[in-house]
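no rush on this but wanted to send it before i forget. theres a chain ive been looking at and ive put its sequence and its fold in token form underneath. please have a look and point out which stretches look like helix strand or loop to you. thanks a lot i owe you, the record is right below:
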Amino acid sequence: MCPKIQPRRRGLRIAVWSLVPVLVVAAGLLGVVLCQNTYDMDEQRVSIRHGGHTLNGVLATPKDGRKRHGLIVYVHGDGPISATHDDGYKPMWEANAKAGYASLSWDKPGVAGAPGNWLDQSMDDRADETAAAIAWARARPDIDGDRIGLWGASQAGWVLPKVAAKTPVSFVIAVSPAINWLRQGRYNLLAELRADGASAARTKAEIAKSDTTRRLLTRHATFEEYVTTMGGDPDGMTADRWNFISENYTADATQDLRALRGVPVMLTLADHDINVDTADTERVYRKVLDTGGALTVKRYPDATHSLLKQSIEQSGLKTTLTALFSPRSLFADGFLDGQHQFLTDLGRGTDATP
């Protein structure tokens, strides 16, 4: 005769078995996340010496069995960005690897334990840093020194041509680059006000505040003067950020872009960019670089400044879920394929012997 099951034990068994479907689903979702965030390339941490300190980098290489690869050196946009951009670069690195190119990136100074402070850097400092990374890469036996190019986003638009003036590069992929720091700032201000549905009074007040900031920058005002002028409210501005802006606010890429004449350049622009006036950027790039036919312009109608799909970026939940379950789908349709095709076209005619 079977013993009676006590009510408490029976309830425990029911609870355990009711959890089984949940655990199965959770395991399945975890498997999807792991699969979708596994990329067809090899990654290794690297250290690059520059200016008495170390750049903490990541080198991603194709798994194609070849002994040497071309290389794309990544130049970050604004902000405290890590080598992988919190894994946001990895879908691009995978596309590069499929085209036979390695990818190199590093933590900005002060980010992820790296020495220094990225807010202490000028655009020339960033260009020197990138040129040092290229020199390091050229000394490696697994990198083809004749096939090293640059990828840069947003603020990198002021860095890329400076790098090309310091060291030869084979190509440049410029993503959402601005031309003039002050024009870009005013465009961004007005675009955000429009997006917020700001009243005429608020718009007038914000423009006046911006004009005051420009006057302070022009006369090299200190951070303390800025805070005092703003009535004691820095509104998120820090001393380091003020010094960074003071160092770089005169940046303008127009003249520097001449260093890219004759270099294959892919200019990538988004139609929903509220950070950069893409019409101004395209006009200047075409004026300076169109002669000789080395410029390719790609526009993505559903993309934001970061080249993510607008419908995804507008929702934090959508962005998080897509990053987890389908990270390659974050980007605007055709963006990854467009970069892959550009690289593939560059590679035609080169020696692909392992």
In short: The chain has twelve helices and eight strands.
